[in-house]
Amino acid sequence: MNPPFEQIDLTDISLPTAGHRFRRLVIVVRADPVVCGHSGEARNLAEAAIERGFEEVRIVTWPIDRLRDAGLPLKPLDRIAPYGPGITVERPDPVGDYKVPDGRFGAGIVGRLVELFSDGVPTLCMSLYLVPHTALVVEAIDATRRAGIEPNVTTIAEAVGSDITNVVRGCVTEGRIGAAVALLGTYLANDHVVAVSAYTKELIVHAAAEVDTLAGTSFEPRCRERIEISYPAISTAEIERRAATLRSATVRDRGLEEGRYLLSLCRLSPAKGIDDLIAAHERAGEAASLDLVIAGRGPDASRLAEVAARSSAPGRILFLDDVDDDQKLGLMAGCAAYVLP
Length: 341
Known about the structure:
This protein is of the alpha/beta class. The chain has helices at about 35-50, 65-70, 105-115, 130-145, 160-175, 175-190, 200-215, 220-225, 235-255, 275-280, 300-310, 325-335; strands at about 25-30, 55-60, 85-90, 125-130, 155-160, 190-195, 230, 260-265, 290-295, 315-320, 335-340.
């Protein structure tokens, strides 16, 4: 099993077509202000890359208006921490007008990637989340080659569990096998394919076997052989240092008491298990005397608030939808336990 990505020196990966090291890192991701682990991971990778000798980092992501229109949970826009020197966040404008019903924003990202891939700068490109980011990277690589330019780029595609549960498994269940074949093929088209945990790898391998059975493909052995484990890029030492200084003020400002609340911090969607958490809090004996703090935003927020209101101790359940990055650390440091159902 590979060590976490934060311990891998990305500059040591050699380009297959050049004898020198990378100079640029491109990360294609739903970046800040989206409430998503990938946005934090992208920030950490970007900062680490600059520290380790990359000349520039480009985070290529979506316009904020598009993120808002899509209904994604967003952090408070006025409290997003700035990125460090050498890191540029790009939000390409859509391509085409109203006559293009979908794909306009993806086309904008592909176009910008083609520009970055065509200038000859030795580049490492990492896509976080297979749909649509990895597909956009593969499309940009193919477009660059079709233009007669061989991109000086090495690609890494990182898969998470919901890449499989949201897309591949859904397509298999619905009989839409072509979409599942396209996703797995796009994933394996990258130079390096990684999963965020051994469990995620097993999910992918199992789903690939299902697709092979239905479509006569050969994804399962290739996924089992090629997928490596790369834990999300989180600097725990830095988190601990900052959390210790933020704990008291954050807990006090939220009207809480240190060590007297349970914390769950996530995107509020059915897959996160917050229903189970609320039910467990009701039945937890001594732990039920602790407040339950649920921090996050998402499509399930209103329904979960109704579930909490019907619980036996609704006054002990607090929803927070305006937690910024610093307050997140302070709340985590001050809780009795962090709960991830």
